[in-house]
């Protein structure tokens, strides 16, 4: 099964549906599996006195509140209906993260096959229950959390009868420094909960996601933007369209490198064996009737004769024809 790649458009449309459509175009051109947005009503998720996170202050104007910043990034439910239809036309899966109950109900009405839950909700137990009760498969990001908090979230979802969970390891910092990535925590999640796992990548570049795939990630999520210089909290830590294409290529190449895990020669190797391996040959000219001694044989290419490992079956046998130096000794010759 291929790694499921989510191109996280998030709020990088800056509240403009036309930019959102261009993000969908870029995601489709990059051959990702899904493009994801964030659906919310600002009044329901951010208090008017909430301060911005450190990375948000670094990436946006510092003289505005978190509420004002988020409000500018909001799209309407009708906008999202239009974006889902646009995705259908383009042949790419539309996903969005609901950040409040009204948005959750709305996205469920769109019959989304997956509900992606952001790291901010992992301790929002009442909300997790409502999500789980929808009986839709859940992808749950685990940024900012410890193992105990993840366990409580998973048990909350289980208690509502929903067993279809994928856990994404994440570090909620934009961009995340390599020293803070801790990809081995993804393996910890897989071993602890016996669930599919993946990685939500907030680093600059693509190395972290490629390494996560090599470690067995089932899902990879990555922010992307049309232009990193645009104003907004997430643009600087996102891939541009060309980088997104390279991101997908690198992941697919890594999958190909990993292979099936079965140790066996490839079809091309089977052909190369003849030229690369050795067979039993005469160490010097041998006459018909000679009893073969160890000193009379050696091992040279090509590899389409008797294998060296069978040399003991040749020793002491009588040759029934003359054999020249370096000539293969076959079973018909003894």
TrEMBL record:
Pfam families: NeuB (PF03102), SAF (PF08666)
Signal peptide range: none
Keywords: Transferase
Gene3D superfamilies xrefs: Aldolase class I, Antifreeze-like/N-acetylneuraminic acid synthase C-terminal domain
Residues in coiled coil: none
Domain AFP-like span(s) in chain numbering: 279-334
Entry's EC annotation: 2.5.1.56
Enzyme class: transferase
Classification via SMART domains: SAF
UniProt GO molecular function: N-acetylneuraminate synthase activity
Keyword Hydrolase belongs to the record: no
Record CDD domains: SAF_NeuB_like
NCBIfam families from the UniProt entry: NeuB_NnaB
UniProt-recorded name of the protein: N-acetylneuraminate synthase
The species this protein was found in: Clostridium rhizosphaerae
């Amino acid at each position: 099964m291929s790694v499921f790649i989510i191109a996280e458009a998030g709020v990088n449309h800056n509240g403009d549906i036309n930019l959102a459509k261009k993000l969908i175009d870029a995601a489709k051109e990059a051959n990702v599996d899904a493009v994801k947005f964030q659906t919310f009503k600002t009044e329901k998720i951010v208090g008017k006195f909430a301060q911005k996170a450190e990375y948000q202050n670094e990436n946006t104007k510092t003289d505005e509140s978190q509420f004002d910043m988020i409000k500018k990034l909001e799209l309407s439910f009708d906008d999202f209906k239009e974006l889902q239809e646009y995705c259908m036309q383009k042949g790419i899966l539309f996903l969005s993260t609901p950040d409040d109950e009204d948005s959750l109900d709305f996205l469920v009405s769109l019959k989304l096959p997956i509900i992606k839950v952001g790291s901010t909700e992992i301790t929002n137990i009442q909300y997790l229950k409502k999500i789980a009760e929808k009986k839709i498969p859940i992808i749950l990001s685990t940024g900012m959390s410890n193992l105990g908090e993840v366990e409580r979230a998973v048990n909350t979802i289980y208690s509502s009868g929903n067993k279809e969970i994928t856990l994404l390891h994440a570090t909620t910092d934009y961009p995340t420094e390599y020293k803070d990535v801790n990809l081995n925590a993804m393996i910890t999640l897989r071993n602890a909960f016996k669930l599919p796992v993946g990685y939500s990548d907030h680093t600059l570049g693509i190395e972290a996601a490629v390494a996560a795939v090599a470690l067995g990630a089932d899902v990879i999520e990555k922010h992307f933007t049309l232009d990193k210089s645009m104003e907004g909290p997430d643009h600087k830590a996102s891939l541009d369209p060309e980088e997104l294409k390279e991101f997908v290529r690198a992941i697919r190449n890594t999958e190909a490198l990993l292979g099936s895990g079965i140790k066996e020669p490839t079809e091309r190797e089977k052909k190369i064996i003849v030229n690369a391996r050795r067979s039993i040959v005469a160490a010097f000219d041998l006459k018909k009737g000679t009893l073969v001694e160890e000193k009379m044989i050696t091992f040279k290419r090509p590899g389409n004769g008797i294998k060296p490992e069978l040399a003991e079956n040749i020793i002491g046998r009588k040759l029934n024809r003359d054999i020249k130096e370096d000539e293969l000794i076959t079973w018909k010759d003894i």
